[in-house]
Amino acid sequence: MILSAASADKGKRLDRYLHEQLPDYSRSRLQSWVKDGQVLVDGETKIPAYLLRGVETIVVEEAPLVPLRAEPEDIPLKILYEDADVVAIDKPAGMVVHAGAGCRSGTLVNALLYHFQSLSQVGGDLRPGIVHRLDRYTSGVLLVAKNDRAHQALAAQFAARKIQKIYLALVHGALKQDRGKVERPISRDPVRRIRMTARLAEGREAHTEYRVLKRFPRFTFLEVRIGTGRTHQIRVHLASIFHPVVGDRLYGAPAKVPDQPPLDRFFLHAHRITFAQPTSAEPVTLESPLPPELQSWMDGLQPLE
């Protein structure tokens, strides 16, 4: 299939243009074709975010329509809680929650499909059971809905901010106050699109509260509560007050800390969650202890005298 970009297409992303021209295919499928080299722009491969000049010739090699759905994989899971409606997983750092760009297997969803016969379908075939997410290199408690009714009930609790989420984080530097709050809108960084930012006036409202648990000469250990669930919220808000999470190089943390071993993850852990059980409405509180690799890393720090 051969397409010709016109002057009206100048500045459009390649994947958006393809979706406009080929509406019978999902944007996710078209993006995968671009990444797999099945789309050539003037004879060259490009990324989905490539901005058209409006004069290109685009050749699309249509691939077989393999269903875009997650498949079961035998991946171990640590289950913190389970009832007829909900499963709570202790997600390890490094595990992606669901398939996305550059990651099609080895996800939490792949593992869930192997271990559980029934999951909610509200999120579609790629995200069964997924009500909320944790970043790849963040660990801790994550809720999964086993049926659509439970999914809708939990989603309503998240939307109404009735679910309490508490994280543990180690950040660079010394916070001046023992308690504080960051209330800055969060939006996509216009320059580095893989980042979010809290430095613009516009964006989605976001509320983060922190309490100092322990101080070290160059670091501060925090308990963090979030009233909203924006992408990268804790990481963005703490970086915006010049205290990036340890290990979070995307938001300004150094790659190495003198006299400390490498940390191949963020020092950010979803420690506790409280929600109303979807059927009984009884409160349920679940905790995940600080992972051994984080505890060990912090134990190596000299405490503040």
What attributes characterize this protein structure?
Structural Genomics Hypothetical 15.5 Kd Protein In mrcA-pckA Intergenic Region, Chain A; four-stranded antiparallel β-sheet; 3 domains; Pseudouridine synthase; nine-stranded mixed β-sheet; 15 strands; 305 residues; 6 helices; alpha+beta; globular
Detail the topology: elements first, then pairings:
Layout: E1 2-4, H1 14-21, H2 27-35, E2 39-41, E3 44-45, E4 57-60, E5 79-82, E6 86-91, H3 108-115, E7 139-145, H4 148-159, E8 164-172, E9 179-182, E10 187-188, E11 196-197, E12 208-215, E13 219-226, H5 233-240, E14 268-276, E15 283-287, H6 292-299
Helix pairs in contact: 1-2
Overview of the molecule:
Strand 14 (268-276) and strand 15 form a beta hairpin. It is built from 6 helices and 15 strands. The strands form 3 sheets. Strands 5, 6, 7, 8, 9, 12, 13, 14 and 15 form a 9-stranded mixed beta sheet that branches. A 4-stranded antiparallel beta sheet has the order 1-4-2-3. Strands 10-11 form a two-stranded antiparallel sheet. It is an alpha+beta fold and 305 residues long. The N and C termini lie far apart (69 Å). The chain has 3 domains: 2-60, Structural Genomics Hypothetical 15.5 Kd Protein In mrcA-pckA Intergenic Region, Chain A (Roll), CATH 3.10.290.10; 69-160, Pseudouridine synthase; 161-305, Pseudouridine synthase (2-Layer Sandwich), CATH 3.30.2350.10.
